[in-house]
């Protein structure tokens, strides 16, 4: 091989090495840029999630605390109680029946009877046609005798029929009130059910549920903030204490 040819071969090999090195450097910079972009995106997403969680007061919440017109809702406990618990329920809902038996009595004993909290109820009648019938009957009882409402509330859940059957009929609802010896006018109760006297009020309740993004029953709000789990008494207690401290700081 001549000297000039050897030099050309060496030069060509050197150029290829330089090009290969340049390509490796380019790929390295691209990988670094890509990783950096991913890390920035992760940091931004995490920051937004933390901010959203902080603003809602509970993960998965819908924003600032819900605002309720407490004066227009059935209430168990003192109106001036610092903690206001709002339950969204459907009288045909089996889970609501479990809440009424397993959680509500403990809330009554620990918080409501001691004046620390009051419990309010919002109808969310969505399971079947007789969900609305039961709610209309309960509203009639409430407007006749606000204290009798809670006796009727307990009786409806205690005598709850099959979720898939239409059991909350006019006759059943009136007879239940009679069996419980509620201090109300039973003929008026029947008339209110037939005439759907409180249909507008029931529509208002369902609208409140929709506005606050309530999609299941029972749902419990504590001073406007949705409870993380309506069946976890320990979590509810912690959230009530947190709400109490926040109320005291205001």
From TrEMBL:
Domain Thioredoxin-like fold stretches: 75-235
GO molecular function, one term: oxidoreductase activity
Annotated family: Belongs to the thioredoxin family. DsbA subfamily.
Record keyword Signal present: yes
UniProt cross-references to InterPro entries, sorted A to Z: Thioredoxin-like_fold (IPR012336), Thioredoxin-like_sf (IPR036249)
PANTHER family per UniProt: DISULFIDE BOND FORMATION PROTEIN D, GLUTATHIONE S-TRANSFERASE KAPPA
Keywords associated with the record: Disulfide bond, Membrane, Oxidoreductase, Redox-active center, Signal, Transmembrane, Transmembrane helix
One Pfam family in the UniProt entry: Thioredoxin_4
Region (Disordered): 1-22
Transmembrane segments: 32-52
Protein name stated in the entry: Disulfide dehydrogenase
